[in-house]
Amino acid sequence: MQKQRVTVTVDEPLLDAAAAAVREGRARSVSEWIGDAMAQRHDRDQRLAVLSRLVAEYEAEHGFISDDEIAEQAQRDRDAAASFRVSARRAG
Q: pTM of the entire structure?
């Protein structure tokens, strides 16, 4: 893939984190570290766009998902996660 040099302004703590990643061998360069972060952001944005489209399609077919339905599902998810953690502790 062809690369292009750009100039960016970065908050100092983030630049420090990038430099630490290079020192610790987790990245070959600050440019690589920032490029990886940009790629991750791009991937996340793409997944969120797909999810948004799927939710819109679902709601067009089945109706709007209410805040109560979201809260109820979130509670079921928390309960399932807690149950899984208990089972995992017992198993090992």
A: 0.71
